[in-house]
UniProtKB/TrEMBL annotation:
Domain of life: Bacteria
Keywords for the protein's UniProt record, in alphabetical order: Cell membrane, Isomerase, Lipoprotein, Membrane, Palmitate, Rotamase, Signal
Signal peptide: 1-30
Family: Belongs to the PrsA family.
Name the UniProt record assigns to this protein: Foldase protein PrsA
Record domain PpiC: where: 180-269
Entry's Gene Ontology cellular component terms: plasma membrane
InterPro entries: Foldase_PrsA (IPR023059), PPIase_dom_sf (IPR046357), PPIase_PpiC (IPR000297), PrsA_foldase (IPR050245), Trigger_fact/SurA_dom_sf (IPR027304)
Disordered: annotated span: 305-365
Location in or out of the cell: Cell membrane
Organism listed in the record: Gottschalkia acidurici (strain ATCC 7906 / DSM 604 / BCRC 14475 / CIP 104303 / KCTC 5404 / NCIMB 10678 / 9a) (Clostridium acidurici)
UniProt-listed Enzyme Commission number(s): 5.2.1.8
Length: 365
């Protein structure tokens, strides 16, 4: 359930967290970070999850990302803690609901999933390296796997019982038509407008678009014959998108100026009919319905947060890094001293051997 996250998601989640849950500053022991319908989420669980997710997040965005400021004035580190808290609370709400629905995951199911993952990481050694890199133990990984499987079974059961009609799909499609309109296009990028006009002239005279794409200054354009594949709105820079979506299938644009140069665009296909994207529309509608269900469950739950009990989590994490660095420096210093001592012993041995040889030589004389 704990997926990779981005900066915008962290800030958005922390805002929702503060506005929808009951916050309290007292009434819980220091090793409790939250209570969901009376069930405790421990500081130990928060700490493990925080550290594992932090490693992945820093690997993706840089080691200093959590020290940066977010848009609401907090540090990204503070917002990140609130994201972790929200994820654990949401998870606990779903686990409790799954228990009511009598959804159980067996040990065999967990082991099978873990074994499959081990194969993906290259066996036992690769798995151990993965755990170490992400700050996890095998028991913790198994626990997370069990919860993930529980979540998937709960979601599967909910969607199975969910009745979505063709009318529901059509209504949702009609309200969000722009989201589902995609085009397939190719382009040729050049530096000067005159070059773009010359290419358009050649295309109108019957030249092959793929061949002319070899003149494109965009890396890799020649190999792709200028193809950009399918894309929707919001994926390209504004000037390019506006021109591309205004074209009919088979039509070629006039030169389109952007910060990269001048583009010649050709649209080769357009998907804007319900029957072309019906499965995707239904999947999105199911996701929305499921999200609404989880939101409703959280609103009905008695949730108390104790964020003040997480204040030392980042400090402890930093202390561990400093301690590890100190240990490494100490070991390095010890190795250096041992090397010097070894060299000194070797030098003394050499000198003694030399003295013995000279003494023996004198005696023989």
């Amino acid at each position: 359930m704990l997926k990779r996250i981005n900066k915008k998601l962290i800030v958005a989640t922390s805002t929702v967290l503060l506005s929808t849950m009951i916050l309290t500053g007292c009434g819980a022991s220091a090793d409790t970070v939250a209570k969901v319908n009376g069930k405790t989420i421990s500081l130990v669980e928060f700490d493990k999850t925080y550290k594992a997710e932090k490693k992945r997040y820093e690997a993706q965005y840089g080691s200093d990302v959590l020290s940066q400021s977010s848009s609401d004035g907090k540090t990204m580190g503070e917002a990140f803690k609130e994201y972790i808290m929200d994820a654990l609370v949401t998870e606990e709400v779903i686990m409790q609901e799954a228990e009511k629905e009598k959804i159980n995951i067996t040990e065999d199911e967990v082991n099978k999933q873990v074994d499959s993952f081990k194969q993906l990481t290259g066996g036992e050694e690769g798995f151990k390296k993965f755990l170490e890199a992400n700050g996890m133990t095998e028991d913790y990984f198994k626990d997370r796997t069990k919860k993930q499987l529980t979540f998937e079974k709960y979601r599967e059961k909910y969607l199975k019982d969910l009745k979505i009609s063709d009318k529901d799909v059509k209504d949702y499609f009609d309200k969000n038509k722009d989201k589902y309109t995609t085009i397939e296009a190719s382009h040729i990028l050049v530096e000067k407008e005159e070059e773009a006009k010359e290419i358009i002239k050649q295309l109108k005279e019957g030249a092959d678009f793929g061949e002319l794409a070899k003149k494109s200054i965009e890396p890799g354009a020649a190999e792709r014959k200028g193809s950009l594949g399918y894309f929707g709105k919001g994926q390209m820079i504004p000037e390019f998108e506006k021109a591309a979506f205004a074209l009919k299938v088979g039509e070629i644009s006039e030169p389109v100026k952007t910060e990269h140069g001048y583009h010649v665009i050709k649209v080769t296909d357009k998907k804007d009919k319900l029957d072309q994207v019906k499965d995707q529309v239904k999947a999105d509608l199911e996701n929305n319905k499921f999200d609404e269900k989880i939101k409703s469950l959280k609103e009905e739950s008695k949730i108390k947060l104790y964020m003040e009990n997480t204040k030392n989590v980042e400090k402890d994490s930093k202390d561990e890094k400093d301690k590890a660095k100190e240990t490494k420096d100490t070991e390095k210093s010890k190795e250096s001293k041992d090397t010097e001592k070894s060299k000194e012993t070797k030098d003394n041995t050499t000198d003694n051997t030399k003295d013995t040889k000279e003494k023996t030589k004198e005696e023989n004389k």
